[in-house]
Every structure is written in C-alpha cells, then in structure tokens.
C-alpha cells in the first residue's frame, strides 16, 4: 500500500518556501523575492481572508501589487472599498513594503496623499509578516485608529468627539477610483 | 491622309512580294507600229543595218523587244508548272533532257538571263528567275499546301510524315527542274550558283513557313518516339548493360532518325521551327528519362559507374549516372543530329545540359522528399543527391516550401495517429540532419509540425513512454506501437558522448568548420549532432509541460509492481542534462522516495507483529512512502479498509512515526495492490488485484454462512464508505472474474459454484463492461484534479479583477501564465469557456470585451 508522509515540522506560515528545501537564504536576490511573492500570492489565492485581497499590478513586475480592502462592518467605512498600492523592496521580506492608499480616505492615521502611519510598516516590521497580515492590520486600523500619533489631527479629533461629522467627512472624501 | 498613306504602303509591300507586273506567262506586246512584223521571227540583223540611222534605232528597239518576247514565251511555256495536281506524281514527269534542251530553248534562256547585253534596246524586260520563283510560290500555295494538309490527316503519324515528305520532295524536283533549265542560261558558273542559292533560299522560306499543325503534330510524335527510343533505353539488366548492347539496341531508331532529319533537311523542313521542335522534344525526353529512371530510386543504380567517371566521383549514385547519361547518350545524339543540320554543339552546351538535368533531378527529389523521409534510412541515396545539389538559397527555399506543403497534406491531418506523426518526425530529424547538418532546413519545415503536435494531447506521453520502454523486451509488434527507437538512441553510448561536447561555443580545433548557412535565422546556433531526442522534446512545447507529463508517467511506473527502475534513471539523467537539475528535482525526490521506502519498508515490516487471519494465513504488508509535496497530486479516496489490514496499517504507521520523528503517514488506500486468496465451494482463487477490489470482495466474506452471501450495492457502499465509481469498478471486476454475479436490482451474490452461471451469459459483454467503468474512473480522477485547479484559477481571476480592474480575456490569460506557479495549462479556449460559465453564474460580467467583478 502506498502512503504519503506529510511533513508537520517547520510549517510556519510565514516561510512556506522552506518546504522546498534549499532556498530562502537571506540576501538581496531578486530571484528569491519573486519566489517569495509568488508563494505569498499562491497563499492568498488558496486561503483568501474575507474583505482583503491583493494581486500583482502587471505580469512583468512582481514587485508592484494592487490590494483591495473592504471597509469592516460597524465602522464608518462599512460598505466602502479602498484600493492600495504595494511596492516591495528588492530585499523583501527583510524590509517592509511601501503601502499607499490609492482611494482617497479620511482617517486619523492616513494623510491626504494616502501615506499610512502604521508601526508594522516601519520599525516594527519583521520578515514574519506578509502581504496578507499587512492587509489584515490595515483593515483593523480602519476600525481602531491609533489616535496617539495621528497624521490627520482633525480626523483624530472628530473620531473622538463627533462621530457623526467624522462619518460625513469619510463619506464625502471617499471616491471610488476608476478601474483602469 | 493616314489611311491613304497606309494603303500606299500596303500596296508597296504587296508588290514587293507578289510581283503582279510579271505574273503573265506571255510577255507584253510592244506597241504595234505600222510595218512592224507581229510575232514573226526577228529579221536578220544584216537587213536592218542598211536602214537609216533613226528608223534603224527604232527598228532595233522593236526587234529587240520582239526577240525578248519570243524568248520569254519559249522559256516560260517550257518551265511552266502544271496547273492542276491531284496526287503527288501528277506534278508531271520531267521530260528527258535531250529531247527538251534544244538550241532554241538554250538561246532563249541565254537571252532572258542577261537582257541588258542581248537585247539592250527592248523597253520591257523581266527577270525570268523571279518569275519562276513567283510561279513556284503560287503553285506551292495553290496545289502543294492542300496536298500537304491532306497528307497530314492520313492515318498514322509515320505515314502522314512520310507522305508529306514525299509530296515536298516531288514538288522540289519539279521546281528545281525549272530552275536548272534557267540556270543553264547563265554564262558564268558563279552567277548560276548564286541564282541557284537564292532560289533555294526562297523556296525553303516558303516551305518552312508552311507548317501545318497536322504535320507538326505528326513530326512531334515521330521525333519523340525515335528520340525516346534512342535515349531512354531501359537498362533492364544493369549488370550486363555495356555500351555495345545499347548501341545495338539504339542503332535502328538512330538510323531512322538521321534519315528523317536528312530528308527534312533536303526538302527544307529543317528550319527554325524544326529546330525548336527538336529542342522541345529533346528537353522533354530528358525529363522523361529522369522521371522514369530515377523516381523512387534512392540507391546507386550502378555501383561500378562511379569508378569509371573520376570527375563525378564526388557526386553520388543517381547524379553521377545522370551526368554520364547526358554526356554519352543524350549529348551524343544531340551532336549527331545537330551536325546533320550543319550546326555545332559546344562543349559548354553539354555542361549546361548536365546542370539542367541535375536541376531536374533535384526537383524530382524535392517532390519525393517526403517519401524519402518515410523510407529512411533506405533512401540515403536520394538524400545524397539532394545534398550535393541543393546549394543555393533558392533551391533550399524551394525544398522547404515543397516539403512543408507535402507535410501539411500528408501528415498533419486527423487521420494520422500521433505515433505515426512522431515516427515521421524522428525520420525527418535524421533525414534532414543528413541533408543539412546545420539544421536550418529542418527548423524551417518543422514549425507547422510542432504547432500541430501541441494539439495532440498524447504526444508527450508517447515520447516519454518511448523513452522509457526497453527495446530488448518488446516484441516486433509491440515495438511498432511505441517509439522504441528513442530508447535505442538513448542507450546508444555514441549519443551520450557527443552531447558532452555541446556547450563549447568555439571549437578552435574543428578543422571541418564551415560558416553558418546564409539563410540561417538570427538566433541560429549550430547543432553538434543530430540529437533526435533533444529536437523531439523541444518540439513538444514548453519544458514545464514536458516535465509535468514525465513526472506523471514516472509516478505511475514507480508505483507499479516493477522492481527495477534502470530505464527511468537513465531517462531522468538525460532529462537532467537537458533541463538542468533543479527542473527535475521533484523526479529525483520521487526516485529517492522509492529507494528509501524500500529500505524503510524492510525495517518496518520486520517489526510488525505477525498477524494471522481466520484461516491461519499470515498477512504481509508493505508500503511505498512518498513525499507528498514532490509527487503529482493524487486524489485521496479513502474507504474502510478490512479490519486485519487496518490493524496492520496502524502498527505500520506507528512504527514509521517512531523512526521518523514528527512525520506521519497518510494512507492512499485505493492506490495499492493486494493479493487475494478466495476459497469458494468448488474452487480457490489466488490473484492480485487493486486494494479497493480486495476490500469489496472482503465485504462478502462471512464466516459460517452456508448460503452464498448476497449484498446490494448500497449496503456495500455504506459499509465501506467507498466512492461510488470505485465500488462500481470493483464489482464489475469481480463479475468478470466470475466471483460475483449481479442478480438484478444492483444486488450481487457470490458465485460459490461456477456451474451456477446461467448459460445465456455472454462472457464477452462482461469483459467489455469491465473496461468502461475503469476508464470512467480514471477520467473521474483527472476531473477531481481539474476541479481543484479550477478553484485555484478562479481565485486568481477574482484577485486579478478585484485589484487590477477589468481585463480582457487575453490579459487574464497572460497574467495567469506568468503568475501561477508551474504555469497555466489552459488554452485561451478553455479559459474562455470557464469565464463564460462564471458569467452565466453571475460571478463576473463581460463589459466592452473586458471581464470585471460585478459591484455589490
């Protein structure tokens, strides 16, 4: 009879590529970045998280992705869809990707050009994070802004003091960017 | 004005040809002055001399004129041609000379020939020669031409030709007779000769331009018959064919031909038209000879011919033979005939003919190339011919064009099996390598073939099984069904060695180096050897697909009960050299799995507690342990394993986990083999079967029952929790083994005694029945994989469209091909179909040629 041996060891989700055995040695090797991103993509496709998705923007550059976040329930962003741009550095995952909101968003931690203030995209980044975890963090950031270090002071204030006005500003600012 | 001018010119032209002024046989009468004798003999000159000067002059004028007229009359009435002719002989017999040639005539002729000196005073004189020419012309047109056309419509071509020649000869005699009479009047030999020549030339011009189509046809037939019989003698006995033999055989037609040419020459039919005709026929006879002698002959027709012609030593078989033929037979005949016509054949002409002949041979070979390929290697001679002659880019282009067309027509159609296409391809690779080692020609013709092969799903499978087959094990018949050739090549050490040289771009010591062919493409790289396998593999599409298929096949073979995997290892080694180690890493691991598990299995099997079944037979248990990640995905189809086996499985798995920490076994229950021992009332059966088949029959095992066990399909299904189609396949299997019987309503009963079988049961139908479900099962297995693939692909499409915005079908496909690990195996059509399904399900929408995710 035939049987399959399944490896249960070292199945850390962050480094699925290690199953292949020999690669993922640290180093700015574009081959390994591509490989890693390909694996991440595969993972995103195989086990999609609700409300977030990401995909390479074009077929010739694996380092540039477009992501989509749906506004979580019971937040001012319910029913809205936000687009983001991911730019992966060539030493990814040893450095964080640059993430920008493409959709105009009114949020205490996002400025008007879409830049995001999130610790895991800066000094708290580790190689164990991946695109999916970043997206999930951002999704939760929408519901729970970090008002101690706002990029948009007005928004932080309104969030705390005038939820109705905040909601109005969010709706006013939001604009679906056209596909293509 | 233009019209009148034209008319005047026309008149002038007409006049110059048909001299109307001198058409009358009787001369013009001079003006009749009083006292002038009419028509009588001229008065003696002495009488005239006494007269006065002026009248004398006048009188002399008169008498000269009369003299002239008389002479004219005498001559013209004598040489006038008969006005009516019915048959050739009625041209009139020529009067005998002595009787005819009297003094009167001769003096008259002499007078007419040179009027200026004999009758200087006559005002009206004419040229008797042109008169004769003119009458001959008229006679020819009015009498001989109708005769000729009558002749040419006669019976056979030979007869027609002969009659025509006779007629013309008779006419010739007649015309020349008149001429000879006239010519006698000339005083000097040279002017007579001159006049003769001029007349002849005129006559030949008339005759030469009077070809009737019938005559031409007849002549063509006769000539080609003669020439073909001289030139294209079949060498029925190549061994005994000496020059003498041929000469003897061709002597008769040759003499006949020369005779014909001679007579044509003498009657003036050997003009330009005849020469053109002759050239045409000679030309076609060369064609006929080449096609008759060399088509389908791809080996040397005459081996000893080579040494006899040292100049042609570098040329091969047919080509040398052809050159020799042109020089000795064709050229010889041409020289002979041309000499008769008074023409010369230059040596250069013969060389030129040789070139033409070889060109013809090559175009024949080019047309035959496909058959040459099919017969390879028995058709080496043909390829040699081509190689020696196909040297210019034009000819190479012609070759590839013609071959591609033939290929399209004869090979790339649905009627051909993939195997035969592949076999032809192998022959093509070899033939073209022999023809053109630079591989440029092959590359040009195989594109269509490669495209076509991509449509054949089984192509890769056939190649891989061919590679993996063992040439020694297979019978003749079987080897025809596979590409065993490949395995032979693979095992050929010469092939292996040569490949090692590859990779070295510049071999400075290669003394046989030649520049790349001019028509090579941009990315051309000179191949070092014919490399059948390499070319074949590269033709089958991308490397990934090939490796994937190879993996699937090798997985199948590794899981079979085969014990040695030498051939597989060899092929794997070959592929590694070709594609690189990393590409075939999975296969390596698979191989290693099998080797490892053999060792591990030995250890684990020892540790198992010996288990005895109810009847005291011991149960053996062995497994192959595969690393899931490296094997092609195999769908898991579990079922309830018979209890004793399950117990063993557990023990085995526990043993494994002890040996290999942190790993556990996942059983693929349905992929194994089991040896089954069945004890029935009248017989016992020992056989090997699939595990699920064994499980199904085990379900019928009930100790202590006397009546045959009976179960319904649903009962077993529930008991084993087995896939329905697996169960179906197993039940059918046991029915064909005559162990179970369907007693209707999907209820099965064990056939304890064979004679229980109802006589009406046709074993054939049951055997047929067994195959169907098996293949259906296989299809199901694939479709499960396909199902999974569709899910993944769908996720990709959704991700792509959600984030990247709407995309056309082509865009989606390129993205998928780039981004899905291992590539997207779908074609554009498959994706289209898939997307259409999703559109109809409402999951995507198609707007303006682009797909997008509908907004909620």
UniProtKB/TrEMBL annotation, chain A:
Residues 1-17 have a biased composition (Low complexity). Gene3D superfamilies: Ubiquitin Conjugating Enzyme (3.10.110.10). Keywords: ATP-binding, Nucleotide-binding, Transferase, Ubl conjugation pathway. Residues 1-33 are annotated as: Disordered. Its EC number is 2.3.2.23. Residues 32-179 form the UBC core domain. The keyword Amino-acid biosynthesis does not apply. Belongs to the ubiquitin-conjugating enzyme family. This is Ubiquitin-conjugating enzyme E2 2. It comes from Emericellopsis atlantica.
TrEMBL record, chain B:
GO terms for biological process: cell division; metaphase/anaphase transition of mitotic cell cycle; protein K11-linked ubiquitination; ubiquitin-dependent protein catabolic process. Residues 24-50, 754-782 are annotated as: Disordered. InterPro entries: ANAPC2 (IPR044554), ANAPC2_C (IPR014786), Cullin-like_AB (IPR059120), Cullin_homology (IPR016158), Cullin_homology_sf (IPR036317), TPR_ANAPC2 (IPR057975), WH-like_DNA-bd_sf (IPR036388), WH_DNA-bd_sf (IPR036390). Transmembrane segments: none annotated. Residues 754-765 have a biased composition (Acidic residues). One of its GO terms (cellular component) is anaphase-promoting complex. Residues 535-735 form the Cullin family profile domain. PROSITE patterns: CULLIN_2. PANTHER family: ANAPHASE-PROMOTING COMPLEX SUBUNIT 2. This is Anaphase-promoting complex subunit 2. The lineage of its organism: Eukaryota, Fungi, Dikarya, Ascomycota, Pezizomycotina.
């Amino acid at each position: 009879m035939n049987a399959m041996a399944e490896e249960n060891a070292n199945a850390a989700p962050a480094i699925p590529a290690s199953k292949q055995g020999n690669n993922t040695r640290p180093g700015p090797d574009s081959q390994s970045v591509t490989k890693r991103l390909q694996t991440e993509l595969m993972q995103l496709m195989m086990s999609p998280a609700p409300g977030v998705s990401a995909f390479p923007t074009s077929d010739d550059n694996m380092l540039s992705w477009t992501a989509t976040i749906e506004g979580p329930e019971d937040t001012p962003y319910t029913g809205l869809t936000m687009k983001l741009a991911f730019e992966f550095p060539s030493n990814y995952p040893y450095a964080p990707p640059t993430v920008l909101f493409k959709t105009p968003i009114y949020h205490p931690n996002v400025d008007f050009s879409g830049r995001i203030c999130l610790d895991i995209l800066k000094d708290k980044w580790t190689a164990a994070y991946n695109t999916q975890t970043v997206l999930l963090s951002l999704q939760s950031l929408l519901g729970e802004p970090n008002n101690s270090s706002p990029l948009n002071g007005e928004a932080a204030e309104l969030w705390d003091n005038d939820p109705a006005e905040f909601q109005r500003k969010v709706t006013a600012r939001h604009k679906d960017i056209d596909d293509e | 004005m233009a019209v009148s001018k034209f008319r005047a010119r026309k008149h002038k032209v007409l006049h110059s040809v048909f001299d109307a002024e001198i058409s009358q046989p009787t001369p013009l009468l001079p003006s009749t002055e009083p006292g002038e004798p009419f028509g009588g003999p001229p008065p003696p000159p002495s009488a005239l001399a006494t007269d006065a000067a002026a009248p004398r002059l006048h009188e002399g004028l008169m008498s000269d004129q009369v003299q002239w007229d008389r002479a004219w009359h005498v001559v013209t009435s004598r040489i006038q041609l008969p006005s009516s002719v019915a048959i050739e002989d009625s041209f009139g017999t020529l009067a005998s000379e002595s009787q005819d040639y009297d003094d009167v005539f001769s003096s008259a002729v002499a007078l007419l020939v040179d009027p200026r000196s004999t009758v200087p005073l006559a005002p009206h004189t004419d040229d008797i020669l042109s008169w004769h020419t003119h009458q001959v012309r008229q006679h020819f047109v009015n009498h001989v031409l109708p005769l000729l056309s009558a002749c040419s419509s006669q019976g056979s071509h030979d007869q027609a030709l002969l009659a025509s020649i006779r007629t013309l000869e008779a006419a010739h005699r007649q015309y020349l007779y008149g001429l000879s009479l006239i010519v006698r009047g000339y005083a000097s030999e040279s002017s007579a000769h001159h006049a003769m020549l001029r007349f002849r030339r005129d006559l030949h011009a008339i005759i030469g331009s009077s070809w009737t189509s019938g005559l031409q046809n007849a002549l063509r037939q006769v000539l080609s018959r003669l020439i073909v019989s001289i030139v294209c003698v079949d060498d029925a006995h190549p061994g005994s064919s000496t020059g003498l033999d041929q000469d003897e055989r061709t002597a008769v037609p040759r003499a006949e031909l020369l005779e014909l040419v001679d007579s044509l020459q003498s009657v003036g039919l050997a003009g330009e038209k005849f020469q053109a005709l002759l050239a045409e026929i000679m030309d076609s006879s060369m064609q006929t000879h080449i096609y008759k002698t060399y088509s389908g002959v791809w080996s040397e027709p005459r081996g000893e011919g080579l040494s006899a012609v040292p100049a042609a030593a570098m040329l091969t078989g047919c080509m040398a033979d052809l050159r020799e033929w042109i020089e000795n037979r064709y050229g010889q005949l041409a020289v002979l005939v041309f000499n008769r016509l008074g023409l010369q054949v230059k040596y250069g002409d013969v060389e030129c003919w040789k070139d033409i002949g070889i060109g013809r041979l090559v175009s024949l070979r080019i047309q035959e190339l496909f058959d040459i390929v099919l017969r390879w290697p028995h058709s080496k001679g043909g390829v040699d011919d081509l190689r020696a002659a196909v040297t210019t880019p034009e000819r190479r282009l012609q070759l590839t064009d013609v071959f591609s067309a033939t290929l399209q027509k004869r090979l790339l159609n649905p009627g051909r099996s993939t195997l035969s296409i592949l076999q032809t391809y192998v022959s093509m690779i070899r033939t073209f390598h022999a023809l053109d080692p630079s591989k440029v020609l092959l590359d040009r013709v195989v594109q269509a073939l490669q495209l076509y092969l991509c449509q054949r799903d089984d192509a890769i499978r056939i190649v891989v099984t061919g590679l993996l087959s063992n040439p020694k094990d297979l019978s003749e018949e079987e080897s025809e069904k596979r590409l065993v050739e490949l395995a032979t090549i693979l095992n050929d050490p010469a092939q292996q060695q040569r490949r090692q040289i590859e990779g070295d771009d510049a071999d400075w010591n290669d003394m046989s180096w030649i520049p790349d062919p001019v028509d090579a493409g941009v990315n051309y790289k000179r191949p070092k050897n014919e490399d059948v396998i390499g070319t074949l593999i590269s033709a089958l599409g991308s490397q990934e697909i090939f490796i994937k298929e190879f993996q699937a096949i090798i997985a199948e073979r590794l899981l079979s009960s085969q014990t040695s995997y030498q051939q597989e290892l060899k092929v794997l080694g070959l592929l590694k050299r070709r594609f690189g180690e990393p590409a075939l890493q999975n296969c390596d691991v698979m191989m290693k799995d099998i080797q490892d598990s053999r060792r591990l299995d030995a250890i684990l099997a020892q540790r198992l507690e010996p288990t005895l079944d109810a009847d005291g037979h011991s149960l053996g248990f062995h497994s192959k342990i595969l690393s899931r990640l490296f094997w092609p995905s195999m769908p898991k189809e579990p079922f309830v394993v018979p209890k004793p086996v399950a117990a063993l499985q557990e023990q085995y798995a526990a043993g494994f986990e002890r040996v290999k920490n942190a790993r556990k076994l996942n059983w693929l229950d349905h992929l194994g083999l089991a040896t089954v021992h069945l004890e029935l009332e009248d017989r016992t059966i020992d056989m090997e079967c699939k595990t699920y088949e064994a499980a199904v029959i085990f379900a019928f095992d009930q100790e202590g029952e006397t009546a045959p066990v009976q179960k319904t399909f649903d009962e077993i299904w529930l008991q084993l929790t087995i896939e329905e189609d697996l169960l179906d396949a197993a039940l059918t299997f046991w029915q064909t083994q005559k162990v179970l019987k369907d007693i209707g309503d999907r209820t099965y009963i064990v056939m304890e005694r064979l004679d229980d079988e109802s006589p009406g049961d046709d074993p054939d139908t049951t055997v047929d029945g067994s195959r169907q479900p098996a293949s259906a099962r296989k299809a199901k297995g694939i479709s499960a994989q396909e199902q999974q693939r569709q899910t993944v692909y769908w996720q990709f499409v959704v991700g792509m469209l959600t984030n990247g915005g709407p995309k056309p079908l082509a865009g989606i496909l390129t993205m998928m091909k780039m981004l899905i690990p291992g590539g997207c195996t779908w074609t554009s059509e498959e994706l289209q179909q898939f997307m259409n399904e999703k559109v109809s399900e409402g999951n995507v929408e198609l707007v303006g040629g682009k797909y997008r995710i509908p907004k909620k």
